[in-house]
Design goal:
Elements: H1 5-16, E1 34-36, E2 56-63, H2 70-77, E3 88-91, E4 98-102, E5 106-112, E6 118-123, H3 125-130, H4 132-141, E7 149-153, E8 163-165, H5 166-173, E9 183-185, E10 191-194, H6 196-206, E11 211-214, H7 229-232, E12 237-244
Parallel strand pairs: 1-3, 7-11
Antiparallel strand pairs: 2-12, 3-6, 4-12, 5-6, 5-7, 8-10, 9-10
C-alpha cells in the first residue's frame, strides 16, 4: 500500500529472474472472468476454451501493491505495464507462470492429472459466490479433456477470523443451502463467522473437483508470514505463483 511503482517494477523483475518466465499478472476485480494466458496474454483475452493439468510447481512470494483492496492494488500496477482484467487464468504452456495476488482472499491453483492445463483463481467472497471457481473449471475442461482435476487452496482469511453479515451467508445459501455448515454465529448480533476455504472446497466438489487440498494457513492470525487487509487495513499483497513443469 502506498508503494513506489518503480520499486514494485524492480521487485517484480527480481522475482521474474527466479522463475521460468515473467508471471502473468491480472487486474483482479472480484469477478468471474477467466484469462487464457496462451491467447495473447497481456492483451486481456478471456478464455472461452481450454484443456486440463497436474505437473505443476507452486510457490508463494511477497508482492508490493498500491491500494486498499485487491482490485485497486492490481489496478495501480497497470501504471507499470498493461495487465489483463480477470480473476482467473489458464495455460497449457509449460513454463508459463500464472500469478494471483491476495491479502485475505483465496488463491486457488487447479491442475489436471494428465499435466495438460493449469488454472489459477483469485476468490474473495463475492467472486466465490458468483462462480469464479466454476468458471475456471469450465474453461479448463472446455476442450473436452476428461482428465480429473486437483486443487490447492492457499493461505487466506480463516474461519475464526472472517466475520460477515447476513448478506454474505445468503449469497452462498441461495445456491447451496447445505453451505450453512460453513457458517457459525459470530460475536455480534446478525454476524456470522464464515469458513471461506470450506466454501471454496464445497464449490469445487460440486464442480466435480474431488481432490482438494487446503493449506490451513490463516492470513489474519499469522502476521509473521502473511499480509492481511482485514487485520491491518493498509498493507501489501503476496503472490501465489504456479506453472506447468512440462513433464508428468
Amino acid at each position: 500500500m502506498g508503494d513506489d511503482p518503480a520499486r514494485v517494477a524492480e521487485n517484480r523483475q527480481l522475482l521474474a529472474a527466479l522463475l521460468p518466465g515473467a508471471p502473468l499478472w491480472l487486474q483482479q476485480v472480484h469477478g468471474t472472468d477467466v484469462v487464457d494466458a496462451d491467447a495473447g496474454a497481456g492483451a486481456g483475452v478471456r478464455a472461452t476454451a481450454t484443456a486440463t493439468a497436474t505437473s505443476t510447481a507452486t510457490s508463494t512470494a511477497t508482492a508490493d501493491a498500491d491500494a486498499r483492496t485487491d482490485a485497486a492494488a492490481d489496478a495501480s500496477d497497470s501504471s507499470i505495464q498493461p495487465v489483463p482484467c480477470g480473476d482467473a487464468a489458464i495455460t497449457r504452456t509449460p513454463g508459463k507462470v500464472l500469478a494471483i495476488m491476495t491479502a485475505d482472499c483465496l488463491p486457488v491453483v487447479l491442475a489436471a492429472c494428465d499435466g495438460s492445463v493449469l488454472g489459477m483463481a483469485h476468490a474473495g467472497w463475492r467472486g466465490l459466490a458468483a462462480g469464479v471457481l466454476e468458471s475456471t473449471v469450465k474453461a479448463m475442461r472446455s476442450q473436452h479433456n476428461e482428465a480429473p482435476l486437483r486443487a490447492w487452496i492457499g493461505p487466506a482469511i480463516g474461519p475464526t477470523a472472517f466475520e460477515v453479515g447476513e448478506d454474505v451467508r445468503t449469497a452462498f445459501l441461495a445456491d447451496d443451502p447445505d453451505a450453512a455448515t460453513c457458517f457459525r454465529p459470530g460475536v455480534a448480533v446478525h454476524k456470522w463467522l464464515a469458513d471461506l476455504p470450506g466454501l471454496a472446497r464445497r464449490k469445487l466438489h460440486r464442480a466435480g473437483v474431488q481432490d482438494v487440498t487446503l493449506s490451513g494457513h490463516c492470513t489474519v492470525t499469522d502476521a509473521e508470514h502473511f499480509f492481511s487487509y482485514r487485520r491491518d487495513g493498509q498493507t501489501g499483497r503476496f503472490a501465489t505463483l504456479a506453472w506447468l513443469n512440462g513433464s508428468n
